[in-house]
Amino acid sequence: MRPVLGVGALFLSAAALAGAPEPAGDPGRIAFQKCYACHDVTPGNDVAGPSLHAIVGRPIAARPGYEYSAALRALAEREGRWNEALLDRFIADPEAVAPGTSMTFTGMRDPRERADLIAWLGRQSE
Ligand code: HEC
User: Fold this and answer.
1) Are the C-beta atoms of 87 and 55 separated by less than 8 Å?
2) If you measure from the C-alpha of residue 20 to the centroid of ligand 1, how many angstroms do you get, rounded to a whole number?
3) Is 56 touching ligand 1 by the criterion CB < 6 Å?
4) For all residues of the chain together, what is the average pLDDT?
5) pLDDT class of 24 with cuts at 50, 70, 90
6) Is the CB of 97 under 6 A from ligand 1?
7) Rounded CA gap, 49 and 103, in Å?
8) Ligand 1 center–CA 18 separation, angstroms
9) Which atom of ligand 1 is nearest to the CA of 34?
10) Residue 126 pLDDT class (50, 70, 90 cuts)
11) How close is the Cα of 35 to the center of ligand 1, in Å?
12) Lowest-confidence region among 12-16, 24-28, 116-120, 122-126
């Protein structure tokens, strides 16, 4: 019994040290490295881009104090909220969905990578 408990405790403390509630190899978390230069998922932490905390279902262009482009405000008028389908289109080609957006990201072409990323973003909502 003792050695088994010891291994469990070691595993838990290693996970806590890594600060990773999900497996370190989560493909969505890995895909987020392409966004990380400009975005954080911590609530309220706008950097170059707005915080993406709880982005799935969130109203578009709604971070108070963040200066969105006219393009993103127009998208908000048209679409209202981010859902998974709209996020998928935006991440694939931001300029196509919001022409003139200040998000200078050329787009993530791989649908599998986008799906993993959106699933991971959906969990960054606690
Ligand atoms: C070079 C910096 C940069 C990168 C890289 C980048 N973004 Fe952005 N992002 C921005 C900026 C700037 C805005 C604000 C756009 C505007 O106002 O037109 C934005 C806006 C957004 C929004 C709208 C948020 C809201 O509050 O409505 C989403 C969603 C988003 N980005 C997702 C992503 C994802 C996912 C990635 C990675 C695949 C990514 N971005 C990569 C800079 C970036």
Assistant:
1) yes
2) 23
3) no
4) 88
5) low
6) no
7) 8
8) 26
9) 37
10) confident
11) 7
12) 12-16
Whether 104 is in the pocket of ligand 1, judged by its Cβ within 6 Å, is yes
| Distance (Å, whole) CA 56 – CA 72 | 16
Q: How buried is residue 126: exposed, middle or buried, by Cβ count under 10 Å (0-12/13-18/19+)?
A: exposed
User: pLDDT band for position 25 (50/70/90)?
Assistant: confident
CA distance 48 to 68: 11
Determine the atom of ligand 1 nearest the C-alpha atom of 117.
35
**Residue listed under structure tokens 């911590």:** 42
Q: Is the CB of 61 under 6 A from ligand 1?
A: yes
The token pair at 73 is: 């405000």
